[in-house]
Amino acid sequence: MSGVERYLIPVAKSDPVLVTRPETVRHVVAFFPAPTEPRSGRFGAFAQWAKLWAGRGVASVVSDLPGGDSTEEVEPVHWARQAAAVVEQAHRLADGRPVHLLARGAATALLPVTHEPGVRIGLSPPTTEECRQALTALSGNGPADADSLACAIGLREADLDLDRSVAPLLDWAADQLTEVRWDLELHAGHRAPRAASALVFSDVDPLARLEVTRVGIGHVLAGLFDELADTANWG
Predict the structure, then answer these.
(1) What letter does residue 71 receive in the DSSP assignment?
(2) How many CB atoms lie within 10 A of CB 180?
(3) H/E element holding 133?
């Protein structure tokens, strides 16, 4: 895309963060993928959205979470350090403009308790109980609940060899998610939203199935960023 840069920024004691920067920056979005979720590639929703939003003057910074293709040890302290680095780079890039924080699944535990200017967005945020259920399934100590897995790690089925490494992250996230850490919630229709403002989709995890749904959500959010930057519009 003409006028759009994509580059990695080194982070001390952590993996680099990935930046997508349009020529003119109006907003910045910091991404926190769910455990096991890739940050790029054909099926990486965040990569699709970064490209889409760059065309509308929205830059993005995305973490390389432990447990994905990262070289980082899978521990909550490293997860939190990477998230802090993403937010720091997002604010540098924004230079006073709004920074929106978007987290999927158990990564919503990384969202700060308060944040401004900008809005915190939780995509399919799990409950503490769902993190615990997913943790039990990944540890091989109980049956896998598809909804809990989808909300916690973005997968409806557990691959124990691949996913049990993220168990420490889920254990930590379960403790953090006793309180709501997002202003706007994107969730499935059969779930009761925990945030004051919510966008409802039909599937338990709107990123897990049709690409047209993922692209549609990207367009909806792109159209909302200007409104979301003003907290008077929440509710």
Answers:
(1) -
(2) 17
(3) helix 128-138
Measured in degrees and rounded to the nearest 5, phi and psi for residue 184 equal -125, 135
Structure tokens at 34: 């769910």
Residue 117: asked if its preceding bond is cis (omega within 30°), the reply is yes
Q: Please tell me the least confidently modeled range out of 44-58, 101-115, 174-188, 207-221.
A: 207-221
Query: Of 129, 216, 128, whose CA–CA distance to 176 is shortest?
Result: 128
Neighbours of 69 (CB within 10 A): 11
Tokens 């896998």 map to which residue? Answer: 144
Cα Rg, the chain, nearest whole Å: 16
Closest CA to 102 of 171, 1, 184: 184
What type of residue sits at position 46?
F
Q: Are 27 and 221 in contact (CB under 8 A)?
A: no
Question: In angstroms, what CA-CA distances link 47 with 13, 41, 63, 71, 170?
Answer: 24, 7, 12, 20, 24
Is residue 111 within 8 Å of residue 39, measured between CB atoms? no
Residue type, 144: A
11: Cβ contacts below 8 Å, ≥ 6 apart: 17, 81, 82, 85
pLDDT digits (tens, 9 = 90+) for 43-73: 578 888 898 999 989 999 987 654 445 555 6
DSSP structure class, residue 33 = P
- Cα-based distances in Å from 1 to 15, 56, 201: 26, 12, 30
